[in-house]
């Protein structure tokens, strides 16, 4: 089964209206615009499990992975998310 099929059954805080973004490590970023918990969700593409909700608020733009960063946009503005410092 293709990972994207599993994600369609993953319950999120609302409907995803835009495109998902997949990084090389198998993490999908999905923006939810409306519902009980709108925001940006990180999803494990191989299992469909939600890893984390990064940002709350109606998300209207497609998130973008670039190197070690994830860029998101929602009703609160644009945000850049980096990997944790180890």
Structural overview:
The chain has a single domain, classed as Beta Barrel (Thrombin, subunit H). It has one helix and eight strands. Strands 1, 2, 3, 4 and 5 form a five-stranded antiparallel sheet that branches.
Please outline what is shown here.
This protein has 86 residues and is mainly beta. The protein contains one helix and eight strands, in the order H-E-E-E-E-E-E-E-E.
- N→C terminal distance: 35 Å
The SSE order reads: HEEEEEEEE
Number of extended strands? 8
Largest sheet: 5 strands, antiparallel
Average pLDDT confidence is 82
Q: What is the class in the CATH system?
A: Mainly Beta
Query: What is the CATH third-level topology name?
Result: Thrombin, subunit H
The fraction of residues assigned to DSSP E strands is: over 45%
How does the SSE layout of this entry go?
Blueprint: H1 3-7, E1 15-16, E2 21-22, E3 27-34, E4 39-44, E5 50-56, E6 64-66, E7 69-74, E8 77-82
Antiparallel strand pairs: 1-3, 2-3, 3-4, 4-5, 6-7, 7-8
Core attributes:
single chain, 86 residues, mainly beta, Thrombin, subunit H, 5-stranded antiparallel β-sheet, 3-stranded antiparallel β-sheet, 1 helix, 8 strands
């Amino acid at each position: 089964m293709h990972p994207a099929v599993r994600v369609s059954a993953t319950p999120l805080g609302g409907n995803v209206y835009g495109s998902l973004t997949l990084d090389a490590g198998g993490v999908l970023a999905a923006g939810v615009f409306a519902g009980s918990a709108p925001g940006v969700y990180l999803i494990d593409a191989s299992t469909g499990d939600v890893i984390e909700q990064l940002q709350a608020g109606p998300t209207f733009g497609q998130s973008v992975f670039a190197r070690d960063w994830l860029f998101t946009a929602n009703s609160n503005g644009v945000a850049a998310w980096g990997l944790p410092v180890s």
